UniProtKB/TrEMBL annotation:
InterPro entries: 6-blade_b-propeller_TolB-like (IPR011042), TRIM-NHL_E3_ligases (IPR050952)
Gene3D superfamilies recorded: TolB, C-terminal domain
Identification of the protein by name: TRIM2_3
PANTHER family membership: E3 UBIQUITIN-PROTEIN LIGASE NHLRC1-RELATED, SMP-30_GLUCONOLACTONASE_LRE-LIKE REGION DOMAIN-CONTAINING PROTEIN
Species this protein is from: Mytilus coruscus (Sea mussel)
GO biological process, one term: protein polyubiquitination
MF annotations from Gene Ontology: ubiquitin protein ligase activity
Length: 347
C-alpha cells in the first residue's frame, strides 16, 4: 500500500507543526546558555596531606562552560525530497509495431470478430466464417486451429491458465475451452443472444441482447451473480477495469462506463469515434476502441473526457472490429475484419 502525494504532504505538514514548538524550545535553551557543556574541576588542598588542625579548606571547586556544538536546521534548509512519477496521459501513448499476423482465407471471405493476447506472448483470433479459433505463435506464424465450432462464434476472452471463453451467438451459450486439450470443459446456456465477453480471471461478463439489453456477470460454473441493464440496441462489446464495466454502442457512437452495480459513471461521444466496436483497457486505465467506420484506433482517458486517434488507415487499419491488450506486457493486438491483416504493437 502506498500513500498518495496529498497524504504525504499532509503528513509532513502535521510533523512540521508538531515539532515546531520543540525546536523553538531548543533554540531558547541554546540562546540562554542552558545547553552549554559544564565541566567541574576539583583541586585537593596540600593541608590534607598533613591532616592537621590547620586545615581550613578541602580545596576549591571551579566551573567553566564552553559553547555547545548542537546544530539546528530549519525546515526550509532540510526538505524531504519526494520522487514524483511523471503524469501519464493519452498524449504519451505511441504504439510501436512489433509484428504482423496474416489470417489465410479458407473461404471466399473472412470475418474477424474477436482476438486475444495471451500472457505467454501468443495470440488468438476468432474467425466467424470458418467458425474457428486460430492460435498464432509469438513471431506471428499460424500455429494451429484450437477449435472449430458447429455454430457461429461471436467473441472470445482469456480467463486464466489455459482457459478461454467463447460466445455462441444464436444458440445462445458460452463455451469454456482448454487451450492444451482443445476440448470444451464447460458450456453455459443463457437466455438471449450473447455477443461480447470479458473476464477478470474469476468471473465472466457477457453482453446479452433479446427482449432486453443487459450485461450478465457469471462465475466460472455458470451461476449468475448480477445483471446490469444497459440502454441501446447496439451495445455488444465490453471491457473490464477494476470495478468498472465499459461498453461500446456502435450505432450511436457512444462509449459507456458503468460501475459493477449498474450506475452510469460517464459516457463519451465525439466525432473521432465512428462505429466503435471492440474495446480494451491497458494497465493504466486508458481505453482503446476499434472504430470500424473510419478505420481508426482511438484511445480515451480514464474519465472519458478526452480522446485521441493513435492508429489509422495510414497504419494499415481497415474496418477494425477486434482489439485486445495484455496488461502485463502492454501488448496491443488490432485486427482488420475482412482482409486478414492483424498488427501487434508495443504501447
Amino acid at each position: 500500500m502506498y500513500a498518495t502525494d496529498l497524504q504525504i504532504y499532509e503528513g509532513l505538514q502535521y510533523l512540521e507543526n508538531s515539532i515546531s514548538s520543540e525546536v523553538g524550545y531548543l533554540y531558547d535553551m541554546k540562546r540562554k546558555g542552558h545547553l552549554d557543556d559544564i565541566c567541574i574541576e576539583t583541586k585537593l588542598s596540600d593541608d590534607l596531606k598533613c591532616l592537621t588542625n590547620n586545615i581550613r579548606t578541602f580545596g576549591t571547586t571551579m566551573s567553566h562552560s564552553s559553547p555547545c556544538n548542537l546544530q539546528l536546521k530549519s525546515s526550509v534548509k532540510c526538505q524531504v525530497h519526494l520522487s514524483i512519477p511523471p503524469l501519464l496521459t493519452i498524449d504519451s501513448i505511441n504504439p510501436k509495431l512489433k509484428t504482423t499476423l496474416k489470417i489465410l482465407k479458407n473461404f471466399q471471405q473472412l470475418e474477424i470478430y474477436g482476438c486475444q493476447v495471451l500472457p505467454d506472448g501468443r495470440h488468438l483470433v476468432l474467425e466467424a466464417v470458418s467458425k474457428s479459433v486460430i492460435l498464432f505463435s509469438k513471431n506471428g506464424e499460424i500455429a494451429e486451429h484450437v477449435s472449430i465450432f458447429e455454430d457461429e462464434p461471436n467473441d472470445i476472452c482469456y480467463i486464466k491458465a489455459n482457459l478461454i471463453a467463447v460466445t455462441i451467438l444464436q444458440k445462445p451459450k458460452i463455451l469454456l475451452i482448454d487451450l492444451i486439450t482443445k476440448k470444451i470443459t464447460k458450456a453455459f446456456q443463457v437466455t438471449d443472444s450473447c455477443f461480447g465477453i470479458e473476464s477478470n480471471g474469476e468471473t465472466l461478463v457477457v453482453s446479452l441482447h433479446g427482449s432486453s439489453h443487459k450485461l450478465l456477470t457469471l462465475d466460472l460454473d455458470g451461476y449468475i451473480l448480477s445483471e446490469v441493464t444497459v440502454p441501446g440496441k447496439y451495445t455488444i462489446r465490453t471491457a473490464l477495469y477494476k470495478s468498472n464495466i465499459l461498453v461500446t454502442n456502435w450505432k450511436d457512437n457512444i462509449i459507456y462506463c458503468y460501475t459493477n452495480n449498474g450506475v452510469l459513471s460517464w459516457e463519451h461521444k465525439l466525432k473521432d469515434i465512428g462505429e466503435p466496436f471492440g474495446i480494451t483497457v491497458d494497465k493504466n486505465g486508458f481505453i482503446y476502441v476499434a472504430c470500424k467506420r473510419n478505420d481508426k484506433i482511438v484511445v480515451l482517458s480514464k474519465d472519458g473526457k478526452t480522446s485521441r486517434t493513435i492508429l489509422s488507415n495510414d497504419n494499415g487499419i481497415v474496418y477494425p472490429r477486434a482489439i485486445n491488450i495484455d496488461k502485463t506486457s502492454s501488448t496491443l493486438l488490432v485486427t482488420n475484419s475482412f482482409n486478414g491483416d492483424a498488427f501487434v504493437y508495443e504501447i
